[in-house]
Amino acid sequence: MGCGASKWKDPGSRRQGRPRSVGEMVIFLPGLRVPRTVDFSQSFGDHLDKSIVERLSALRARVVAMSMQESVVALKKPRRGSTTRHGGSGTANLLQALEEYLPVLLGLVKSSELRNKVQFVWANQEDDAEETAMTDAWYEVLSVLHLMAMVCFLQANYLLLPRSYGDGYGPRVSEESRRATVDVFLKAAGYLDCAFHQVLPQIPPEKRRELPVDIVEGNLKALSLQGLGQGVDMQLGLAIDNPKATLAVKRRLACEMIKYWQQIKDSIPELPLTDGWGKKHTLFVKWKYAEAKASAYYFHGLILDEGDTEKSDEMAISSLQASEEFLKESKKASEAFHSTPPTSRISIPFGTTKYLLDRIPRDTISKLQDNQHLYTQEGTSNTGISRMITPPPPLPDFPLALNPEEYELPQLDPLWKKEANN
């Protein structure tokens, strides 16, 4: 293949490693891109010390084996009973294997002679092509960072699956798990931010055009923002459960969520919609964007309701009605997301979602009933209650507070210093 890139797609078969169903899915991740086996000894021959070749081979073989195993079992069969503080033990081990591989791998990108000697092949998930091969060690680094981020998303999904605690209450997602996922989301965003700013620019433009959609600029940015947006979602859910958190704090977090999901919509590339993950990804963004709007307009309406004027009452009603409409939109998008192949099961609602489903319909109807005297009947709901047909008031604008956890590429493995001395 020389120094270029190649893609392969078998039009006559179902994609390998793509399940028809993925169990309960709270966090979207398009499966795991799995690396294919590479023969370093054949590629380098006498160009590289045997100890480095053996170390590279051993570390990458471990990553290949573990990522293949995790991709098969990860989303098909969530292991609630075997999760650690940061999710499944298999994902923790895979993340450690990737972190140990990077310092040795980075030695290849430091040498112009070694950088383009190995053809790295990775299986795709969202791209039309089943595999993408590229003779550039920076492509391998980019793929490793993306996989590290997806493993974090997988850990977050494990943490957010409802569990039984044997205390007489039904399955639920604990406060500890929700707090832990904020750190996991920021970690994932940090890996992707590093991939976007430090690694992607190292790949020549002509090769960048050959990258699979899974790891193109727009998708890396969108997935990083998804980590931040879902981190804020967890913070909002925790604030909702905290009696000391004010409505102003909850509204601010909800408005920040809107901005994150708007940026995701603006960043996400055009995804293939005929082969599962791309369509599912698009529906997930639609679902969470609508849910963010529902929460923001709901808390905005409650704050406006604290006013004592007829105008504030009208704006509060309009905001609550908007929140109800966006909640309906988010429920439809959620159902479409879960029914799109690979199908997934709807998990028990918790946090922000559960609160909105419980409160928005009830509070909207209550506010309408209390204020029927304010307006003539402009529209009637299926409950027979008149509704105001006016646009909702604008939401306040807040700066985004959550940032990715800072991540820098690691230092070279000491083996490379020995190689340089030789």
Automatic annotation (TrEMBL):
Similarity comment: family membership: Belongs to the BROX family.
Region: Disordered, residue numbers: 377-402
InterPro entries: BRO1_dom, BRO1_sf, BROX
Matching PANTHER family: BRO1 DOMAIN-CONTAINING PROTEIN (PTHR23032:SF11), BRO1 DOMAIN-CONTAINING PROTEIN BROX (PTHR23032)
Protein name, entry field: BRO1 domain-containing protein
Superkingdom per UniProt: Eukaryota
Database matches in Gene3D superfamilies: alix/aip1 like domains (1.25.40.280)
Every BRO1 domain range: 26-422
